[in-house]
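User: what does the whole thing look like in 3D?
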Amino acid sequence: MRLLEDRAAREAVATDRSGHRPDTLPDAVVRARNVDDVVETLRWASAHRTPVVTRGAGSGLAAGSSAHAGQVVLDVSGMDRIVEIRPDDQVAVVEPGVLTADLDAAAGEHGLFYAPDPASAAISSIGGNIATNAGGLRCAKYGVTRDAVLGLDLVLADGRRVATGRQTVKGVAGYDLTSLVVGSEGTLAVVVGATLRLRPKPLETATLAAHFDDVVAAAAAAAAITSARLQPSVLELVDAVTLEAVDAARGSSLRSLGAAALVVQCDGRGALAEIEAVGQVVAPFATTWRATTDPVEAEELLAARRAGLPALEATGDVFIEDVAVPRSKLAEAVAGIQAISARTGVRIATIAHAGDGNLHPIVVVERGATVTEGPPWEAACAVFDLALRLGGTLTGEHGVGLLKRTWLRAELGEDSLDLQHRIKAVFDPLGILNPGKGI
Amino acid sequence: MRLLEDRAAREAVATDRSGHRPDTLPDAVVRARNVDDVVETLRWASAHRTPVVTRGAGSGLAAGSSAHAGQVVLDVSGMDRIVEIRPDDQVAVVEPGVLTADLDAAAGEHGLFYAPDPASAAISSIGGNIATNAGGLRCAKYGVTRDAVLGLDLVLADGRRVATGRQTVKGVAGYDLTSLVVGSEGTLAVVVGATLRLRPKPLETATLAAHFDDVVAAAAAAAAITSARLQPSVLELVDAVTLEAVDAARGSSLRSLGAAALVVQCDGRGALAEIEAVGQVVAPFATTWRATTDPVEAEELLAARRAGLPALEATGDVFIEDVAVPRSKLAEAVAGIQAISARTGVRIATIAHAGDGNLHPIVVVERGATVTEGPPWEAACAVFDLALRLGGTLTGEHGVGLLKRTWLRAELGEDSLDLQHRIKAVFDPLGILNPGKGI
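Assistant: Here's the predicted 3D structure for the full assembly of 878 residues, as structure tokens:
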């Protein structure tokens, strides 16, 4: 364990990738190397009633790991061992600091994969994925982080260790504390280990890209894919603002093919037949579409999606929302976001996990400008309001963090929030775990 | 709402299908017709501090809905409306008394299905499925009840109504109260409505039955299927005791083909190719195997599994366990159960969801004999002990109920159980909801 109090160390852990900038710095950083370090830190924090902000790779998008004066940051990114992969059980046991993409690669050596694949997989850690119940591109077919977590090793606020869940894929002994802690954003306990479900790698993959005159046609095509009972593993929508940024960054001319695109992947036996069926469904809506089973060509088709966020980030500072709506409301949500952008004059690009109704409206401001106040934040709040009006949620996969907390009551209601605060008190009676975040 | 106090009505709701017989009868039965009935009952029960045992179809296997003197049974089986099916969102909204098979059939009219399929689907209700986090045959591929529940409408112990979850397939706003209530066996709140995820019906299905000289070879073949990265939707193991009962009941001669069988189903595009790959994997282990895409022939192959439990029930009274072990321990578990049967002289048949390591050791006693005491119960307890020693769990999908409660501490440990009791107190401070069950 290393305890650091110098300014540079504290600045490095003050916030995440949300764009939020706390006014002050945390008092200190503990770099934990093992479970004992975490136990010791929490015992000390309990004794001194000092708030602890647990931090993984710092890739969060809701300021869930931002910290300020009077708080200590518990950095578990150094606890990064893949403890065990048991191919016969299709299970991995990991420490929280393991990067998501590293686990996926290690599973790949056994013909397996780790399904949750947030766009941040190369830079985000499993612990952070668990804290926010991270999703990703493949979760339309394979579920989110919660669906992949079989059990957790926790350190409670008072330093006691508790194991939740099990080593088996099924089990109903006791309440589901595992699911309760997944998505709890560091407010209930510190995750020091996780038993994760792996899945067999699909034998075949096929990829399609389709372009459309407008984003409403693209959303309608996505809905038609779902209605046709097809089950892509990836079904992503990209709007004109994003396509223009990608073209500027890569010298491509995607925008000339239409004002919106869908990128679709099918996998498993029969992937090619399924992608061809997708092609037949999208054809009446599309200006053009193309499908391939060639991996190199597939990467080219995926570029419109994968290059989207980096391309937008190259044009300014961003705040990435992740509202979700019922799948049938996707077109309405996309049109509503465009109207908000037009009304407020704030630049908003939209990328969406269309397969599960999860949208990423990306508010883009000039480099150095603050995203989380003034007109950009008002536009972001109008998007929250839109999502709730469409029967949706504030956050599909990024978490509430600090930034969405004022909106939470509107979504959950008084009685539900009251239950949640009392559950928080069961786990953390002194209120020292990431106070002011999540609920 | 009807309040019944006559003896016949109270006898009809005193227990479930576990074999447990309470010494006394509950004081009364409330037959709820709508949410207001439930609210009124719980307000009255809170005011009078009277314990309430919520009951669906009464098909439980762990005495989770058994009730005794001093308790009132709240029967919600009459709240049986499918409120809405929204095909475009692949979502159903139902009341708790809807029978599982009825929901699946209604979804089928839209080309969709409801994935959880406990063997009791024709007689068990969604509310009970939620209470126990029911599994079934298809959950190896499609997950358990918890994976299908997007949101719940609850009535709390004090009569307040709270909604959990959402209408969207993804969402992380607030703690996951939905997953907490799923599997909580009526101890946290009364479920009066559920928003459920439906899935597209697979376009193709292929079925295989294979027979083996002994059950260890069958378990090894099941493990080999998993290791080969194949993903059957159904992967069931049936032992010799069960095959003999099926032969006696149906006049078949399955036992002559071997001392154990596997029944396998693959679905989706490429189902036939996948089942053929399954055949190649099991062939070295099997005495004989056969695959088909013909629906009538498929039903015949499935009969060894589907007819198993009714055939055993025709030979005596049964207690059905549902321990689960890591998938790689399946053969060891099956061998251990056989050893327990030999050592105790108690007849135990085994059917297993081999795809997820979930076993159903079925203790069979003479008609009218009590399963839950004496040597039969000692044998059942030896199976619990075996499962825990193999790194498994007491219950994969039936719940803890009354009967497995004494074993719970051994599985969960003191600190975890303490957390769970304190969570129970958050929801039900007076302790009136199904006391003595679950945790």
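In plain terms: Chain B has a mean pLDDT of 95. The longest helix of chain B spans residues 374-389.
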